Amino acid sequence: MPAELTYEATLRELATDQGVLRYHEAGEGPPLLMLHGSGPGVTGWRNFRGNLARFAEHFRCLVLEFPGFGVSDPTDEHPMMAAGGATGRFLDGLGLDQVDVVGNSMGGIIGAQFAIRRPERVRRLVTVGGLGANVFSPGASEGIRLLMEFTDDPSRERLVRWLRAMVHDQRLVTEELIEERWRQATDPDTLASARRMYGSKAMAARAKAMAQSAEPPYWAMLHKLQARTLITWGRDDRVSPVDMALVPMRTIPDAQVTIFPNCGHWVMIEQKDAWESAVLAFLTRKDESK
């Protein structure tokens, strides 16, 4: 990675009325907001560091670190609830009226929800797995069950099992990856936040609340999404099985789908070159009238 795109050189801070939001910035051009997923030891930098150099040739890349994942200041809200508000505060703080958004898994859901609420602020949206609802596959998926097991009782063995479920190519689960994820995931504050999201009790309570709620699930509102959308997915995803893509594919008014073979949940890592090419073609394509 070029020296100018190191962790330290790209790290920025933005003070807001709900604490400091940290992010990474690289490149010049139209703003591209990159939103990370969830899971043990996740950060925006770890999700997208390998893609920054190529995207920074075309865009001002802004990799936001959501509150509650050990980098930005936490808030009193549930981390998944805090993410949407943090996205708005971040764009307001930087004075950005409209952006393109790339969101990995949870980040794709947050991006879609934000685009539905504020359609004028998102030009194009790219999602990486995770967006939608199980149609043929059972829930919870293998990857989600392993995530819950690790969160309830963290151990290196459980972390490795979860990491192996994230990828098709097992060679990607290196000792370096395990170590950096372990350090972040077992930080006391980060672990406490994770248990609010993925602990078995929290997941059961969330499922019960959703079943009793009068509000429709987010995926039932995707027909309101106005932004042109590219849905990307790994064919061999064991966290969010590819049949989940059927709902957004059929309901988002202007959506296209690209599925990558021999690829798990981390499409932007495991099929890096092919994914970057597809996303750049989508984002740089000249706007046509709808």
UniProtKB/TrEMBL annotation:
SUPFAM superfamilies: alpha/beta-Hydrolases (SSF53474). Its EC number is 3.7.1.14. Keywords: Hydrolase. GO terms for molecular function: hydrolase activity. Residues 30-270 form the AB hydrolase-1 domain. InterPro entries: AB_hydrolase_1 (IPR000073), AB_hydrolase_fold (IPR029058), AB_hydrolase_sf (IPR050266), Epox_hydrolase-like (IPR000639). It comes from the Bacteria. GO terms for cellular component: membrane. This is 2-hydroxy-6-oxonona-2,4-dienedioate hydrolase.
